[in-house]
Design a protein that fits this description.
It contains 15 helices and 17 strands. The chain has 441 residues and is of the alpha/beta class. Helix 2 crosses helix 3 and helix 7 crosses helix 9.
Length: 441
């Protein structure tokens, strides 16, 4: 894809040797992780107990919005919602509610849904996808608001989304149903309009936007999903349109924050992430986990974890080449860079306005994993390389198992959530690709 770029030929022989640990400690991290046992029953109960179902009459069409995030069990939850609507006598269909993702094309967005398991065969209903929108209102002294044309034509719209801390801004309302209405249902056009205001715009406009969607559209409500620290469904809660963006959604955000995973160390010199991607986070890696924002004119967060350098080794297949978030890293590999679809990356990044100006830049790129780690060891401002504190994770969603350098044993043993379960060698192929502590595909 990128052979004409010239980068790979130029860096092929680059080598900046530095010692790496011969072995790593395998560490398990325990979290309070409540989990929904019966997803189908919980989904049906959320539609019923919230009053959403009572507002839909038999024979009415319901546009069910599903986004692009890698939400645990999203296909099962969507199917359960469709089943309950059908049992009620309604006529549901699915529409992609994902802004500019999927290359901002109708076909691309259907493809993303399919990778999430949301297909017509599985959910049992039609998927209607296009990028056309209808303007449904405007916030005074703020952005115009839009709604997917297929959803606009239905009798009701119902959105399904995860409530969680946002990766770009913080406030009473962050990622959740309010944002999904504005950006998801607004498609690329709506997403571009509000992203132009930056983080301050989200903080200022999400709540009043929710009131316009309530009053000026067919939005009947939404299913809010909260996940636990192990990336499993913890709760499914139904919100009426009149409750989206208000106290109920605020409380769900606080609940989601209380269940989040975290990196359990105050300082990390080199954090190595096996893979990042759009199915992991909108920013490839969760900025709340790595404590890093990279947004122009916005200060970086302080506090723990204080991470000197981040190494990213690979991209998830579900990203389809979208390199969103790679600019948060300091070092990556040629393997990652070869997978980048710059058209998809820039479409998503430019649509996100100021949030995409740093995060889509390719960092220092080395021929393979070993060289990338060695560059990070040399660049993390720890002059005695044996003292470099290294942490390895699969991704920012999967933090129940970590791999850490042996010089962190005392920190692990002093932490109430952590336990060393074994030691394992840090090994590479002759080409420098890491094969242990995990095998890279």
């Amino acid at each position: 894809m990128n052979e004409d770029f010239g980068l790979f030929e130029q860096i092929q022989t680059l080598d900046f040797p530095a010692p790496l640990p011969e072995k790593l400690l395998v560490v398990e991290q325990q979290f309070d992780a409540p989990q929904v046992d019966d997803l189908r029953a919980a989904t049906r109960r959320a539609l019923e107990d919230s009053g959403i179902l009572a507002r839909i009459n038999p024979g009415q069409t319901v546009a069910v919005g599903v986004g692009s995030r890698g939400i645990a069990n999203i296909a099962i939850i969507a199917r359960a919602a469709v089943e309950r609507l059908k049992d009620h006598g309604a006529l549901p269909f699915i529409f992609p509610s994902m802004g500019s993702h999927g290359g901002a094309t109708a076909e691309g967005q259907i493809g993303i849904l399919a990778e999430l398991g949301v297909t017509e065969d599985f959910v049992g209903t039609e998927i209607r996808s296009n990028m056309a929108v209808k303007q449904i209102g405007q916030i005074p002294n703020g952005p115009a608001l839009f709604q997917d044309a297929n959803a606009h034509a239905a009798d009701h719209s119902l959105i399904i989304g995860r409530v969680k801390p946002h990766t770009d801004f913080h406030g009473k309302i962050e990622s959740g149903l309010s944002k999904m209405a504005v950006i998801g249902m607004g498609k690329q056009h709506g997403a571009s309009v509000i992203h132009a205001y930056g983080g301050a715009g989200f903080q200022r406009f999400l709540i009043p936007a929710a009131r316009i969607y309530e009053e000026s559209t067919n939005l009947v409500g939404g299913l809010a999903i909260i996940e636990n620290a192990c990336d499993e469904t913890a709760e499914i809660v139904g919100l009426l349109a009149s409750e989206i963006g208000l106290e109920k959604e605020e409380k769900l955000l606080l609940r989601a924050k209380s269940l989040m995973a975290s990196l359990p160390f105050p300082e990390i010199d080199v954090l190595t992430i096996r893979h990042i991607g759009k199915n992991i986070s909108g920013t490839g890696m969760d900025t709340n986990i790595v404590n890093k924002l990279m947004i122009p004119r916005q200060p970086e967060p302080t506090g723990a974890p204080d991470i000197a350098l981040i190494v990213v080794l690979d991209m998830t297949p579900q990203s389809h080449g979208n390199a969103a978030g790679i600019g948060l890293a300091n070092v990556t590999t040629a393997r990652y860079a070869r997978k980048v679809d710059w058209a998809a990356t820039y479409t998503n990044g430019i649509t996100s306005g100021v949030f995409g100006m740093f995060r889509n830049s390719l960092p220092i790129t080395m021929p393979a994993d070993k060289q990338a780690l060695q560059v990070a060891v040399r660049g993390c401002a720890v002059p005695n390389y044996d003292d470099v504190r290294m942490v390895f994770i699969r991704d920012t969603l999967t933090l129940d198992r970590l791999w850490v350098s042996p010089n962190m044993r005392a920190l692990v043993e002093a932490h109430p959530r952590l336990q060393v379960v074994e030691e394992t060698p840090l090994t590479f192929t002759e080409a420098g690709v890491m094969v242990n502590p995990w095998e890279l595909e």
